[in-house]
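Sample 1 of the test manifest.
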Amino acid sequence: MLRGTTIDIVIIVVYFFAILAFGTWFGRYVKTTRDFFFGGQRFSWWLIAFSCVATLVGSYSFIKYSAAGYRYGISSTMTYLNDWFIAPLFVLGWLPIIYFSRVTSIPEYFEKRFDRKTRIAGVFVLLVYLTGYIGINLYTIGVAFNSMMGWDIMTTAVVISIICAIYMHAGGQTSVIMTDLAQSVVLLITGVVIFVLGISYIGGLDTFWSSLSPSFKLPFSGFRTPPEFNSVGIFWQDAFGSSIAFYFMNQGVLMRFMSVKSPREGKKAFFMVVLLFMPLAALAVSNAGWLGRSMVNLGIIPASVNPNHIFVEVANRIAVPGVFGFIMAALTAALMSTVDTLINAVSAISVNDVVRNIAPGRDDSYYLKWARITAILAAVVGVVLVPLFMSFKSIYVAHGTFIAAVTPPMIITIILGAFWKRFTTTAAFSTLIAGSIMMVISIAWPSIISPFDHGVALEGYKYIRAFYGFIVCSAIGVGVSFMTAPRSANELSGLVIDSIEDAKRYFKGGAEPNDREPGKKVSGVIQLENIDGLRLSARAMDRLKAGEGDILYISDARWWLGGIFSARLHALKPHDLDDSLVLISRENASEGNLRPERPVRVEKIL
Amino acid sequence: MTELPWLPFIYQYSIGGIVFAWGILLAVRKKVLVPSVRQDRVTIVQLVSGFFFFFAIHAILILISGA
């Protein structure tokens, strides 16, 4: 067992408290439940993109992918480089649908798109998925710290959950986004630091590359072999299973994308994440394993090293005291970011889908109070589940079994619901229920998967189960749809890809959307007036290509604030004062944390 | 480890390519993307470029692996 030095432990403890203070500080900008869950829908694309990295790099990533990199080589990056296939469906379909129809959770979408009982089924499946996921992540945190620092698993899980719950309690989504921004930077820097130090330790890039075998350098593992890491199974399980679950179904990630100031910004954030940050993250989490293999081949590390300890082995070998603590802090960053996102997601579903239904029409502060209570409850339930996941053979088995059993029915229900207007309510409910049952059956009797296994051995069924799930759930959904009557086009308005323009009208309060010509941003200075909206000069409106009633976004001119100081308001009749004057009310300025003396920028949203 | 180095690549980009192309064509057919609008044309170019970006990364890695 490896333990850090005193300076390493000091760095980790300081990091914990720094993140706690950083997240809590942003709680002061939370004034409504919309702020708590969606950060007020005002953030810039780059802020959301950065904050996604810390969520994408899950708590298990450094240890899991370093071990995979050590065992299987560059192909450990497979799961990080296969998200682009779903890009059109996400940025052109799912994101605008949920953003403009103002749904706050997947279950809410299910009720609007289908009916109440489908919503209840969705709530149940999602809460099981999310709280179970919290438990797995807290368990992984405990295991990681146990192997590296010798700390007790349960104690670590409890401490981490308390820290996350405190800053979640204080600031909700804004705190999550801002802390994840900081943690993402730490994560990516750490990945590069490990790689640079490792290459230097080995003796240069040429030595590193030439020490690896040709098969180790391949970006894909074998099509069917090895069964525990076959590329065909991982393709179905990850490119479609995990990726669609992550972007379409994971409430925490959806809330990130719904926190952006517009779907156009969401598209930019997605592109940045998948094109730049995912490859960087793949390098960050895997390279310790590649370095480890190189070190073994060069005789630096004994071949008997445990692959699960390769991350710590390499980090401890290449890093001096203090740097090791920094690397540990990065690991902590990944761990905490995943947990805080999940806790916020459980809180959102609990309040929006349960509390609001039980106690409708209450004051916003009432729901905000419940949001904070459920954040703490989610953390507690996660800790309670840790011993359950400790009983699994490994973290990977616990994680894989759990995810594979839950995601395919939800994924197919979401995809068919959003992209096929013929998909009926009965079919959606049947897909969720019968699909889940079929997934459980496949766990009890794996032989049922054999017609779909592509020749993969039984050991690899935990991945190819996803393909089985997609086929079975699609068959249920499509089959039942053709036997039942679909809802009318009016009832589906704004909820399917066919009627995104309707969703935009709904978002804009019934007015025609104005987003074909984006216009240019205008700069100005706030002048407070007793109005409900935003007034610009006619020339500024022309430059924005905006008209009266359009939705405009006003933000502090300091771009690096990422939209923390901003507001979204309807354009009112142009004023005939100086072109640089932006007229808004004191209340609107206060809600957007905007100060009259600061320069602002205005842009058209819709 | 890999019996046919290019087989996973061909499989992934064939199946993935179908899903990817279906997403774009669906968006065009449902008028979410209107090719005559400049910003929509830019979006299509960005999407297709991203596809070939990953395609190229994987192809280059296979080629330089020496397998």
